[in-house]
Amino acid sequence: MATRIDNIQLSERLTPATLDRIVKQHTFGPRTQRELQLLADRSALMDPPARELPAQPASDANQQQHMLDAARAFVFQTLTHLPNFFATRTTERFAGISPEVNKTGKPVHIGLYPRGASTREITFRNGREVIDPMKAPRSAQSLPTMGLESWGEFGPEPAIVLLGAITGTVAFHHWEQEPAGLVAVYRYSVPEQDSKYEVNYTCNGSNAFHAQPAYHGSLAIDPVSGAILRLTLLADSKPEDPISHVASVIEYGPVDIGGQTYICPIRSLAFSVEEVSTCFRDLKDQALVHNRSLVQPLILNRTTFSDYHRLGSTHNIITDVPETPQEPK
């Protein structure tokens, strides 16, 4: 069953509600459950099936603009001004040949397989995520750097998208049903000349590739609060790029920090495909030359954020100290 799931290529998103229903209705082994979750992850950039979309008419132009303005306020006034806190960031890495990237036309071993996991504590202080060099990642096994390293879930990536959309395009697309209620989904695109989204690729310790490509994606916005609950981003790669299929998904939800509820990152996915197998420097001009690979692996990094807790201390001031009764002589 797991092998069959590996070879499925979906054209619509496998939503959490449908995935939960499948798992509850059937008995699967641990590997099949893992492949089902990976199948859902691989489809995370797509729209849900039409039958799962609510029969809700589109808002008028004023309401659509109001929700978009509320989302900007959420990112620039709320998300980047969260209280100082600690959280645990756990990243699972998977790599392999998926049906979506198999361009060989030959029978190859299809599937994504675990390539390690790491956990580290992150600190959010003064509106930004701080990396403490004294806190090294804790890994169950050796974890080489691989795939797209996601960054910016706590504000920078949504801010880049919303700022870029001012000169790009953004428009309401459809409604989706979430456990907390309806969310408004917008489609956006940002041209290369206005892009602030950076893609860096390192080969043999050298920063072999740097670009600020055009990109597009979607924003899922809570129509009441303006909170962004889901963000997708797909970079527009060029044929000569050493890395392609660069994409990310960030999911937000309510978390408790110090007795207060805030909307924070819950989970993120980062996708990338390495188009090259090796690289070397040309002896004449020292330019980095890439050898293109016949089989390009898809690398998926799945990150979860948990154990949010307030950064700070508490104290009590006692003004009246009761007298200690004397012991009888």
Question: How would you describe this protein?
Answer:
There is one protein chain. By secondary structure, this protein is an alpha+beta fold. The protein has two domains: 2-43, no CATH class; 62-310, no CATH class. It has helices spanning 2-6, 16-25, 30-42, 61-78, 156-167; strands at residues 85-97, 111-125, 128-130, 138-139, 169-178, 181-190, 199-203, 206-211, 215-221, 228-235, 243-257, 260-274, 276-281, 288-292, 298-310. Strands 1, 2, 3, 4, 5, 6, 9, 10, 11, 12 and 15 form an eleven-stranded antiparallel β-sheet that branches. Strands 7-8 form a two-stranded antiparallel ribbon. A two-stranded antiparallel sheet has the order 13-14. Strand 7 (199-203) and strand 8 form a beta hairpin. The model is unreliable at 138-144 (pLDDT under 50).
Q: Strand count, sense and closure of the main sheet?
A: 11 strands, antiparallel
Order of helices and strands: HHHHEEEEHEEEEEEEEEEE
Q: Could you give the count of β-strands?
A: 15
Beta-strand proportion: 35-45%
Low-confidence stretches: 138-144
Structural class: alpha+beta
How does the SSE layout of this entry go?
Layout: H1 2-6, H2 16-25, H3 30-42, H4 61-78, E1 85-97, E2 111-125, E3 128-130, E4 138-139, H5 156-167, E5 169-178, E6 181-190, E7 199-203, E8 206-211, E9 215-221, E10 228-235, E11 243-257, E12 260-274, E13 276-281, E14 288-292, E15 298-310
Antiparallel strand pairs: 1-2, 1-15, 2-3, 2-4, 5-6, 6-9, 7-8, 9-10, 10-11, 11-12, 12-15, 13-14
Question: Could you give a short description of this structure?
Answer:
The chain has 329 residues and is α+β, with helices and mostly antiparallel strands.
